[in-house]
Amino acid sequence: MKIYYDDQVDAAYLQMSQEVPAGVVEMSEGVNLDLTEDGRVVGIEILNASRNFPLESLFSCEYEPRLMADTG
């Protein structure tokens, strides 16, 4: 995953894959998903990013693996 921030337009983009998106879906005002033709998320665009969350959180990452409960 790559994260981009454009301070001139205050937009953040989280690139999830190298695939070329086939379309965009607006999830909420200022949050758009770039999707492949079969609905996989390629990227997430966040407009007015600095007004919606602390920008320093874009550049820190925590990973906590979780075990899936056995549903069998």
Structural write-up:
The protein has 72 residues and is mainly beta. 6% of the residues lie in helices and 39% in strands. It contains 1 helix and 5 strands; from the N terminus they run βββββα. The chain has one helix at residues 49-52, and strands at 2-6, 11-15, 23-28, 31-35, 41-47. A 5-stranded antiparallel sheet has the order 1-2-5-4-3, with no helix packed on it. A hairpin with a 2-residue loop joins strand 3 (23-28) and strand 4 (31-35). The chain is globular and about 40 Å long. The mean pLDDT is 88.
Low-confidence stretches: none
SSE run:
EEEEEH
Report the strand count. Answer: 5
Distance between the termini: 32 Å
Summed over residues and divided by their number, the pLDDT gives a mean of 88
**Main sheet characteristics:** 5 strands, antiparallel
Shape: globular
Largest sheet: spatial strand order: 1-2-5-4-3
Rg over alpha carbons: 15 Å
Give the helix level as a range of percent: under 10%
What class, by secondary structure content? mainly beta
Note the total helix count: 1
